[in-house]
Amino acid sequence: MKTVFVLNGPNLNALGKREPGIYGGKTLAAIADDCKQAGASLGLGIDFRQSNHEGDLVDWIQEAGDKAAGIVINPGAYSHTSIAIHDAIRSIAPLPVAEVHLSNIHARESFRHVSMVAPVAVGMICGFGPLGYTLALQALAARL
């Protein structure tokens, strides 16, 4: 069975409590369950992780380069600032990476409109809440 790493960046551990008007009321644990269920239906193993630390995300991206068939990543605010995450994803090409955001980053503050991840991802899904993770898994499964 192919494995997809689902990586989550800073503050996503606070989902369910943090700004539910923007991010919804679902917890990250519930999103992990959704991903595992979707993965099972797609024939994919899911390795679901979260960290508030950029270096952890870089380490996991590099690990995925050796162990995974693809990555779904919600880098959180690091989307807009992290050249390190951009470079880590670039270094594991052609491993497919799908970027996910719960909110529509293009309908929010202007500093959120640019993603450092998008140029090295196969695609981005934003604005569909937790469903975005399932959509990203479906999109990756179609490419694998």
Write down the CATH class: Alpha Beta
CATH architecture: 3-Layer(aba) Sandwich
Percent of residues in β-strands: 15-25%
In CATH terms, the superfamily is Dehydroquinase, class II
Number of domains: 1
Explain how this protein is built.
It is a single chain. This protein is an alpha/beta fold. Helix content is 38%, strand content 19%. The chain has a single domain, classed as 3-Layer(aba) Sandwich (Rossmann fold). It contains five helices and five strands. A five-stranded parallel β-sheet has the order 2-1-3-4-5, sandwiched between helices. The longest helix is centred in the N-terminal third of the chain and has 15 residues, at 28-42. The radius of gyration is 14 Å and the shape is globular. The chain starts with a strand and ends with a helix. One of its GO terms (molecular function) is 3-dehydroquinate dehydratase activity. Homododecamer. The active site is at residues 23, 101. Pfam families: DHquinase_II (PF01220).
Q: Main traits of this protein?
A:
144 residues, alpha/beta, Rossmann fold, five-stranded parallel sheet, 38% helix, globular, lyase, aromatic amino acid biosynthesis, EC 4.2.1.10, DHquinase_II, DHquinase_II_sf
In short:
It is an enzyme of class 4 (lyase). With 144 residues, the chain is an alpha/beta fold.
